[in-house]
Amino acid sequence: MAELDRQLQTDFSPGRGNALQACAASLLERPLDEVPNFIASDDYWAAMLEDAGAHGLTLLKIPLADGRLP
């Protein structure tokens, strides 16, 4: 398995930081500036679905039961 080209968080603003953006960029092996800062949008989940769809991907959100995966 190849090592990921990690993208690091650059915005640490409370409620608007880009840790999720950096995570997605790292997993998708894309530059940080090519991935939206999902948290800065009105609906982060819709923004993530839209970005994933633009790249032929989709996402699955699994609800937790009592804070744990079922």
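Second entry:
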Amino acid sequence: MFLLSTNAKLEKRNGQQYLIAGLSLAPHGIGDYQVCPDATAGCKSACVLWFTGRTVMPMTRNAMKRRKSLFFENRELFLDQLRHDIAKHIRLANMAKVKTAVRLNVASDLDWSQFVTEFPQVSFYDYTKVKSRTMDDTWPDNHQLTYSLNERSRWQTTRAILDRGKNVAAVFSTRYHPQSGRIDALPESYRLNNREYQVIDGDVHDVRLQELDGSGVIVGLRFKGSLKRRALAMKNGFCLSV
């Protein structure tokens, strides 16, 4: 079983090229094991990693479930295979003369801080709802985290994260319907209490590295899903109204 995605993509941003691969486990609430310690009702109901795109296909979902079970039931075998996959990914990137990037929490929010130190040449990046990780000065430099705003986030904490130069991802109610060509613009800024913060378009690419996004910014994401699910996400506070 390969753990990293086999459809690694080449992303070019700001004159740099990255070969990207990700680790997709079945998300929180699916199966017996939980992978998101700070999951909220809002994020579980709106999870794009289970209700949209290829993840609605049984083959994809079953593979995510198998990886998740292996992680909890045979951790040693899982990590050995993951090391093998990352080493192969590094070789491919070196052959292409591009940078190596890996997202280990495509649909999870696990603590990989010890594991990533084994690969200092790799740029790891993830979203997280665990505030303490984004405030931890000892967190590995090669694992960049973007805090995910949710209905339980306090503006004081969110501002503290931004003012430390870290980035915060926020889902907006901005219309997203590519099938009809309707993808509305995100707001240029967002006010937290009495302070404005720049909003960048996080849908342009998914490589959440500060050398591409900047620092101390809000990474705006459009809500992906049906109008009914968007209305629910707005009602429970997970999705910001614009």
